[in-house]
Amino acid sequence: MNKMHWLDPGYDRANYPEKRSDGSFVVDKASQKFVKIWQGPNHPGVTGNMSIELTVSGDEIIEAKTHVGYLHRGFEKLFERRKYIQVFPTCIRMCVAEPDYNEYNLAAGVEELGGIEIPEAASWLRTLVLEMARLQSLLRVVPGQGGTTGLGIGVQWGVYLRDLILDRFEELTGGRVYHMFIIPGGVRGLLPSGFRKRMKENLADIDEFIGNIDKVMFNNAVFKKRTVGVGIIDPSWVDSYGIVGPNARAAGFKRDVRKDYPYLKYKELDFDPQTATESDIYTRSRIRWHDLIMTVDLIRQILDKIPDQGDIRAKTPNVLHWKLPKGETYVRSESSRGEYGFYMVSDGSAYPRRINLRGPSYTHAVSLLEKMLIGANIADVASIMVSLQTCPPEIER
Amino acid sequence: MKKIIDKIGYKFNLSEIQYQRDNLTFFTIDKESVVQMLTYLRDYEGFSHFVLMTAVDWIEDGLFQLTYILNNPKEKVDIGIRTVILREKAEMTTAHHLWNQVATYQRELKEMFGIHFPGSPRINEPFLLEGWDDIPPMRRDFDTKKYSEETYFPRPGRKTHDPAEYMKQKLYPNE
Amino acid sequence: MKETTNNNKFLHEENKPRKVLAPDGSIIEIDPIRDYFCEDRPQVSKPGNKVVERFLNWARAESIWVLGFGTGCGSIEIPPLMTPRFDAFRFGVQTRPTPRQSNAFIISGYLSVKTLKRVIRSYEQMQNPKYVLALGSCTINGGMYWDSYNTINRLDHYMPVDVYIAGCMPRPEALLAGFMKLKELIKQGKAENANKYIENLDWYKANQKKIIKDWNMPDYNW
Predict the structure, then answer these.
(1) Per-residue pLDDT tens for B47-64?
(2) Among the residues of A80-219, which ranges form H helices?
(3) Which of A58, A157, C28, C134 is deepest in the core (most CB within 10 A)?
(4) A92 close contact with C: CB closer than 8 A
(5) Is the minimum CB–CB distance between A152 and chain C shorter than 8 Å?
(6) Whole-model pTM above 0.80?
């Protein structure tokens, strides 16, 4: 079809918009038939500040581009100006939703480069803190999927229970959101007395919540109609786009860092990550719901096995004058979104040379989202974004 | 792990092999054979997951070191490939046809370090910064404290207490 | 109003002056930044009769509607504020999605240059009288990112602020105490910072344009 103008007689709207051979659409900006809509940085929900520039024809999205950079603070440049012990309070703020994974990765990298072994009790406490961080993040995200389709009651229940877990964090570490509990060499303290009893009461409340959210959200006809069959990830995309975490598990690939590259005390715990084959939004929410059940079970196992006394910190040199030997390494851990890794290079001085974070949202939110939104409706954009669990602070650090 | 490295060593010229852990190895190759090595590892050795690509600035030698890390999900091993390019006119062949996410990493490196990858899609679009007309900020000759004090002036009355200086004064007051 | 300075190096395709085809078939010339927006300067709205103003201030203080724009780290403590544990709805505080329907703006944490442009746009679109709460120590003097090349250090050079809430993060109870202080200020008639912004508009604009180098908005976003 050659370039007819829409004012010419004989223009047929059925051939519109034109498709190229590889399936993408021809966007002719001068034809005034496409509208550009920005789904801007103002998201009243679980995602952070990230904007998507949509080119829309009617209600169908033709092209999408992600724009990040609203939360860029230049962390990697700031790290080069601080000594290793000063990097710790700064690096927590890189991922706001689950701050403890940053601390753990940095401590694991520094200990590997410096050749330090941590004691038993410290290892158990670190595992407990990481699982509690995953629990408070999943309590916000699992009902958040219902929030995008209009079901607000799950969010109110989930965030209330998350506040109770933050109370336990405050008892253990001293702060609600940013803990600074994991330091190079071990942790900062043992469990306070009565902690296990209060934690088990909270877990009983969360068990009741898990049953309720199943009835209210997953068996809801409107939620099912809007999420089953929408936002499908093809299994051939998993390796070519580098998809990790619950998104890959919903497409049939059983990948979990806690099982494949065990770290801390995960070898002695008993758990089994779930997979599924039809990878739409409903299945991804279900996999996260199963993750929530698994996390509650893991915390119960860990609480029974933590020693009450013991050494919590290994001997490290004076942290103000600590010079790590020259080397580089890559450490990883499993956050609730997927594989979370730090690449560290040290050059023998007291300041780090390069610390680079690779978060799972780097590929999910920028390249995968642009591919998944083609052909979707405008109303589904928020659901798809939340189902990939994108977290913009770790894209742009 | 050692068997895989030996097999690769027959075909390519490796140097500075570092066995960091029993499932992580780093080695250095020259810059012309990087894309060839990535294709060989992806197609024949099963390293199908691309983890990250980043750059380190060794300003005292006048070099950038690029690092690519690949992961084999079946054997559960990692390989880190290092290569060295000059700092003056920093350019590198693009690898965006192998994995779809590499284009994003290359955009970020162009903006933060100034390394150009000819042929990569959307390479000249700004990725993280808006309205930036200074040198690429992650280079080590960019002084971030000076830039911040001139542009976003701090509130007057700020004092800094460096704990290392304080301890030195207390323990060795004569020096 | 003064000339808008189009820094052509950073301008997008859509915002450049160009010729387009109009719906009736003719070709016209447009300049998007100057043509589509109102170019008047905003006017100061003085408080009126004392008794009526006291009643209106009471009404404004008891129903503060906050714009739901989480700008930084601090936005992780906004959902706990709106849920049953630290319920802010009983004080009349709720979040609204658009600036046209909201009263107060919570700047939660640091602001990068890119976000500052959008925040200024949203702030100027809100109706008078409007209030700003600055959360966290990053708004006071830069906080933890004081030496970063992308975050601003002193918020009150770009926007007028009513209440500062210190902390990193402040607890939701601290946020509620901040709201109490704001209500006191409104009822005493001291929260007139929207008028202060209009009176010193040139000084604020000069500061903003110095750091936002790709200014592709009109000078005042009505």
Answers:
(1) 888 888 999 888 888 888
(2) 84-91, 100-114, 120-141, 144-148, 153-173, 195-213
(3) C134
(4) no
(5) no
(6) yes
